[in-house]
Amino acid sequence: MRGLKIKLKLKSFSAWLENKITKWHIAFLIFILVFTVLVMIELAYMGIQWDEITHLNGGSLLLRGEYQEYFASYAFYPPIFDLTTASLFGIIGISVFTARLVSVIFAILSLIIVFEISNKMYGQKTALISAILFGVMPGFVWLSRVAMIETMLVFFFTTSMYFFFNWMSFHKNNDLILSGLMLGVGFLVKYQMIIAGLIMLTSIFILSRDYLKTKLSRIPLLLLAVALVVIPWIFVSYQIYASGMLDQWIYAIGIGNPEKSLYSVRFPMPIFYFIEMTWPYENVHPISLFLYLIGLGGLGLFSLRRKFEDKFLLIWFGVVFTFFTIIANKHWRYVIPLFPVLAISASNLIISIYSRIQKSLKASQINRRNKQGIKIVAIIFALLMAVSVFLSCLDAYSWVEKDQIQVQVGEATNYVANRLGYDESIVVLVPFNLFSQDMVKFFLEAKETKNNTVWQYPELPVDTYTLDFNITKFIDLCEDRKTKFVFLYEHAEAIPFFNSTLKWSEIQAQLFESGRFSTALDDITNKTVYFGVKTPRIFVSLFS
Question: Residue 61: left if φ>0, alpha if ψ -120 to 50, beta else—which one?
Answer without folding.
Answer: alpha
